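tmp note - Molybdopterin molybdenumtransferase
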Amino acid sequence: MRDRLSIEEYRAELFRLVARITDVETVSLDRADGRTLATPVTAATAVPVFVNSAMDGFAVHETDRHWGAELSVVGTVAAGSPLDPAMGRGECVRIMTGAPLPSQADAVVPVELTEESGGIIRIVEEPGAKNHVRAAGEDFSAGAEVLSAGLRLGPRALGAAAACGRGEVTVVRRPRVAVIATGDELRPAGAMLARGQIYESNGTFMAGQLSRMGAEVVASPVLPDDPESFAARLDAAASGADLVVLSGGVSVGDHDVVRQVLGGELGSSAAVRSRFVHVVMQPGKPQGWALWRAGEREVPLVALPGNPLSTMVSCELFVEPLIDAMLGREPRPWLRALVGSPWPAPRGRRQVVPVVVSSDESGRLVVAPAHEGVSASHLVSAAARADGLALLDEPTDNVRPGDLVSFRRYL
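out:
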């Protein structure tokens, strides 16, 4: 009987296999989406850079900003204009949103509160307390930290970096990951299938998911169930990788070549250490890891079960945390959600279920299985239909409406 571990216990073992990447590079913003910041981004300039108008309207002296005031229009300032028209009491300047406020103005009266005729405006509604002026540095001052190290960069963060004058960012080098699917039965999508053959899908999924996680996929071979060929091609794949992620062949069948090669069951092996366990979860119970000698390095290898949903769930629970650790970033949070409809659960194991999510009348998240098969390990469409995964807090026989579960959306 192999060891039985909780999800958390097995994840802790995997963390001990990897090291944080210290290599960094500087990239332009158009190449930084999905990367992880290595150093903070500080503002090259204050934002806003200068005092400017928050509305289309008229720049005025504060003493002239009241109902009934009649003011002469003495100039116009558009966004991007360098003009700074002089204006005295009883005068105003037509101004557009984002344009620099004239030096002698204190406030802006929105155009909809005015009437204009013959170069004279009249304020026809009480302007109220708001002056519609944006102060320089109101968002952040020059030198302020805008983005913290360890942040996963996305469009909003990159927009903030651009707004504060930074055209480049320093990011952590992407972890180089070799993705391997195993099995003589696997054929490429679109090929003709003979009896007993299936289309390879795990490698396609893992390569795409790892790219979204922020890794660089450096190899994605499909390896046969022949131990010698498997070992030789694993050597080649591991030689340029920081991590190897492999699916299939980790159970106890006679042709489960991964366990045979990594566990040294067939003689000498480049596996320095290996371990195969049962994780108390469903799907994804059989799991394994190894350190594979590639030249002078020991490359960590994570072996996932081969059924498609098992691979997808395992990638989420075990591989993504490793990529986070290697990049030095915080993991994505799990939220709490209500169960909307009942479903069966396996006795004695924590269930992980692809779910669709909605919200109730109070705005609380509500989840339901994406497939009537709930969490059967062979279901590909369940994951494709789902918004994310629900993770039960503890083993149970049945999940009931109103129960609370952990939920996380897919990347």
